[in-house]
Design goal:
six-stranded mixed sheet; globular
Length: 258
């Protein structure tokens, strides 16, 4: 294998996504490693044999609360090591981070909190961002070749959102959240998609409250695959797949040379 193909996809409920053709899409072999966020299910409650029958090893880290949050990774490459969570209790109770080692590369699949439900969760989002940043800083010293993919729940720059002026007071595009992204991206990390694709109007999430916004491509780019500086020279290809429609998000693709 000369390259590593990775997809990050917030499925907004894996059982719902499976009912909308997720398995059929997986049969097209979209990537070697599929990082899923917002499973909203425990492994035992999902027909996961449909995934393993396609040649994937599956690893799940679900929230304690039923029908909420959760991450999973489906991988055709067997990892050398799997780690569940980051040791931060609220985050781990919500099933937000799963980590897999492939040789000297660590892949981190993360579902960042949303702050849209009110001030309390927005406050927790800032706490989570700080905890995660510190965690990654420490991890980078031991494992410099890192990939963080997932739903970051933040549109970084004006190019990443269809209506920057109208959304500047909305969670996901607040100045403090964007400042965190600035700090993250200028401290040893590269946004894989933006590194290879400078074009506007590339989004990964569309509000379901307004049925036409996806047709009109009035979206947000809040799903990312970021790599540390030692991997930035390995970036080969990137893509966003808006026509894959099992969720209000769409998959993000990144290919790295090994």
């Amino acid at each position: 294998m000369s390259s590593l193909r990775i997809i990050s996809y917030n499925v907004n409920g894996i059982r719902s996504a499976m009912n909308k053709g997720l398995i059929e899409w997986l049969k097209t072999d979209p990537a070697d490693i599929i990082c899923i966020q917002e499973t909203k299910a425990h492994k035992d409650n999902v027909a996961h044999h449909l995934i393993t029958e396609l040649g994937y090893h599956d690893y799940w880290f679900s929230a304690k609360k039923k029908g909420y949050s959760g991450v999973a990774v489906f991988t055709k490459l067997k990892p050398d090591h799997v780690e569940y969570g980051t040791g931060h209790s609220v985050s781990d109770d919500e099933g937000r981070v799963i980590q897999l080692d492939f040789g000297d590369i660590r892949l981190i699949n993360a579902y960042f909190p949303s702050g849209t439900s009110g001030e309390e969760r927005q406050g927790y989002k800032y706490q989570w961002l700080d905890e995660f940043y510190t965690y990654l800083e420490e991890l980078k010293k031991k494992k410099p070749r890192l990939i963080v993919c997932g739903d970051y729940n933040i549109a970084h720059q004006e190019i990443d959102i269809h209506d920057p002026k109208g959304n500047k007071k909305n969670s996901g595009f607040l100045p403090e959240e964007r400042a965190w992204m600035d700090k993250f991206m200028t401290n040893g990390w590269v946004d894989g998609f933006r590194r290879l694709n400078p074009d506007p109007h590339n989004y990964t999430w569309w509000s379901q409250r307004f049925p036409t916004v996806r047709l009109e491509n009035k979206g947000w780019r809040i799903d990312y695959i970021s790599v540390t500086d030692p991997l930035k020279g390995s970036l080969l290809k990137t893509a966003i797949y808006p026509d894959v429609r099992q969720s209000d998000h769409c998959p993000v693709y990144l290919e790295l040379s090994l």
